């Protein structure tokens, strides 16, 4: 019941991308098709955010790194993404992180240190999962994760419905 | 001097969140690096508003009223936006049934003098811009804090500037700063205050995240909560991969008729998706066989080779024209513009 407009927007963007892709090339392999479908879906869900969140910008920037995706991205999102800007941000934050890592080593060993280590390793893992997570401080990381999870859910929901609808079209099944 | 008071405060919260050790925060950046209140500029406000399109319930009006009342009162105790924001976030994912109890909670909490946390401009804006009611988890927190403040003989050592709260819905960029006050026996330098503010922020967001991810409420400790979150995100990403593979194997005939689909305003049910595909299909997809393979794909995370090799046999039946990707755009050009 929630997120209806989000789902619809995602669907529109996604189908735009799929149409564009089909007009381009006819893939013979299932793997290429899967890649194309996933790419369209990812760009579609990222562009529903209109570059307001870091993960969406990072996702689109990653996709636009490959030159062949350019028209796809422009068609779906309707805008050109400045490539250099996002990279600069990431570099800057990494510098701060490195500095802090050295500063912390002087702390006296406490039981809480183990806890901190665990939390730290998990935050690192989360950063790897969320697109564009590497350059974030943990506050915005959590915020981005929340938004990312909701968007992922929308994506999964819409794609799942599409898949079940497509399944229903098969009149008979063969093994 | 600082640790004992901090401990008691943390223990209060432990009633709500389980036992959190003092070092719950990530401790990524040392406090003296984070005194600034500017996050990298991103306005999450519109994103959350778009996400959570709830009609503004009456509780929000109460929220606004409380804020006005707070403003006219002496500025020492403005409203506790953090809790309200947190609570409102919580209730968005619940149903609107919460609103009656929300209203009573709000009126009860009006008389309290909550503790203040300095919020960054940007994220408060994102909370405030969306129209959300406050929920009941605000009350236990504020109650406990009030008791705590009564016990600890309040001496205001330090306070920072307050910019009045502007919670009117859809209001643009008025962003609140909230007091951070040092309690008795606490260090009052700006570092620890900033660090405390930062920790409060992190805790607030973690709470939101916990509510979002299913199964996190039972887990008490940050590392385990993060584990759950990571698992959830990984599972969702895997699902996307899985579904895109599944869709790639589907072979409907071209014509996807989107006109009827987009004419509807309601939530797209599966049947509506069905209407997108017109007749004349090619029944060449091997559904059950490939489904088994998909299940195996689901379980074998790294080992995809054998499954894909098997898929290769099926691909003989899959011709280029019969993929999901080829749409008849002529019928859709009207809809897509």
From TrEMBL, chain A:
Keyword Nuclease carried by entry: no
GO terms for biological process, alphabetical: regulation of DNA-templated transcription
UniProt keyword Nucleus, yes or no: yes
GO molecular function, one term: transcription cis-regulatory region binding
Record localization: Nucleus
Domain of life (superkingdom): Eukaryota
Short name of one Pfam family: IBH1_N
Domain BHLH, first and last residues per copy: 103-152
InterPro entries referenced in this protein's UniProt entry, alphabetically: bHLH_AtIBH1-like, bHLH_dom, HLH_DNA-bd_sf, IBH1-like, IBH1_N
GO cellular component: nucleus
Main location: nucleus
The protein's name in its UniProt record: BHLH domain-containing protein
TrEMBL record, chain B:
Segments forming a coiled coil: none
A single Gene Ontology CC term: nucleus
InterPro entries: bHLH_dom, bHLH_ZIP_TF, HLH_DNA-bd_sf
UniProt entry keywords in alphabetical sequence: Nucleus, Transcription, Transcription regulation
Record localization: Nucleus
Gene3D superfamilies to which the protein is assigned, alphabetical: Helix-loop-helix DNA-binding domain (4.10.280.10)
Ranges of biased composition (kind: Basic and acidic residues): 1-10, 117-126
Cleaved signal peptide residues: none
Region (Disordered): 1-23, 117-170
Broad class of where this protein is predominantly found: nucleus
Name the record gives this protein: BHLH domain-containing protein
